[in-house]
Write a structure and sequence with these properties.
By secondary structure, the chain is of the alpha/beta class. It has 11 helices and 16 strands. A hairpin with an 8-residue loop joins strand 14 and strand 15. Bound molecules: zinc ion.
């Protein structure tokens, strides 16, 4: 495996079927990593990929972002941070009430019975911060990292909004008992509502990483707030990491018309748990926007896979014959040398496939 050239931008998406990690080459050997999942060898996929190209993560990784604390996005992220010794860590200041309480419990009693892996990863990261740059908090239209070197780049977070952070405080405030008053029910918001979407500008290219950010009824939150923001970076992205595994709740038509080029390269990871994403309707909706869609793996939900039994058997036997040679963890690699390549070059590895195959 050869690393990208100094003037070659790369977007790599990894996903074993449940899990997601992104690696972006920003130019001149500098990398951005977003989220983490484990590969077939139970190693953080993005980290193993950099090492396989002979890249030292301690030198190369400049920024590591935890887009939100869902298990399918943070597996092994503390190990990634430990290895990325010169990287700044970035995440949202606001979290959900559940995540906050898990940290509080760990602090108070070292009570492992309530600790989920996402807080374990967060606590490990906090303990690694000694001697490192302080956490760069994400938010609407916040520049997380910029370089004005030979190959300038800028990474901007687009969410969560200030209102979303305020709603987090409101949730926490509801936990404080008031005398002679029945405890008010806290609104259990989803971690997806505090997810950090990112805008990457490098070598003249723009990339939109949608995390798991979902649309909510409030126009001051979610994708609506991002689309209507006057403070977000100008330009249209030619690559879109589709939000929330392609779900309808992560979709906003204006994102496609106002923030993306015509027929961008759309990449996603499936969510092969509880119901499963994307569904057939989701795949079709994305393919109506662009023919250039790719997934790191096939969704396993019944709604998503409607194939002829005979075809299914044939595909299965092919998959089995490839099993030893090919890794299961899917990898979509996009590379482009601006000024040299007219379009993005796409390489698929493992279980990665074209979205067309899922329609
Ligand atoms: Zn997810």
């Amino acid at each position: 495996l050869l690393p990208p050239l100094a003037d070659e931008i790369e977007v790599s998406l990894f996903g074993p079927g449940y899990g997601e990690a992104v690696a972006v080459h920003l130019g001149s050997g500098d990398w951005l990593l977003v989220d983490s999942c484990l590969n077939d060898d139970r190693q953080p996929a993005a980290l193993a990929y950099l090492k396989s190209m002979g890249i030292d993560p301690g030198q190369a990784v400049k920024l590591l972002v935890a887009s939100h604390w869902h298990d399918d996005h943070v597996k092994g992220i503390a190990d990634v941070f430990a290895a990325s010794t010169s990287a700044t860590f970035s995440c949202a200041w606001a979290m959900t009430q559940k995540e906050f309480l898990q940290i509080a419990h760990q602090y108070q009693a070292s009570d492992n019975s309530v600790a989920g892996s996402r807080t374990t990863e967060l606590v490990k990261i906090i303990n690694l911060l000694e001697g490192r740059p302080p956490i760069k908090w994400t938010g609407a239209d916040k520049v997380l990292l910029a370089s004005s070197g030979r190959t300038p780049y800028q990474i901007t977070s687009l969410s969560p909004s200030d209102l979303r952070a305020q709603l987090f405080l409101k949730e926490i405030a509801k936990l404080v008992p008031v005398p002679k008053e029945t405890r008010r029910a806290a609104v259990d918001i989803s971690p997806n509502h505090v997810a950090s979407a990112l805008w990457v500008s490098a070598l003249g290219e723009d990339i939109l990483l949608g995390s798991d950010l979902e649309e909510v009824a409030d126009p001051n939150c979610g994708w609506s707030a991002i689309v209507s923001s006057t403070g977000r970076p100008a330009g249209k992205a030619g690559v879109f990491k589709v939000a929330h595994h392609g779900s309808l709740t992560g979709h906003n038509d204006d994102v496609w018309s106002k923030m993306l080029t015509a027929q961008p390269v759309a990449i996603l990871t499936p969510f092969n748990k509880s119901g499963g994403l994307p569904r057939t309707a989701d795949v079709q909706r994305i393919l109506e926007k662009t023919p250039r869609g790719y997934a790191t793996a096939r969704p396993t939900s019944k709604a998503a896979v409607k194939r002829d039994k005979a075809v299914e058997r044939m595909v299965d036997s092919v998959a089995i014959s490839f099993q030893r040679a090919q890794p299961k963890c899917g990898h979509i690699q996009l590379r482009k040398r601006p000024g040299v390549d007219a379009t993005w070059r796409v390489s698929l590895d493992g279980n990665a496939c074209e979205l067309k195959q899922l329609a």
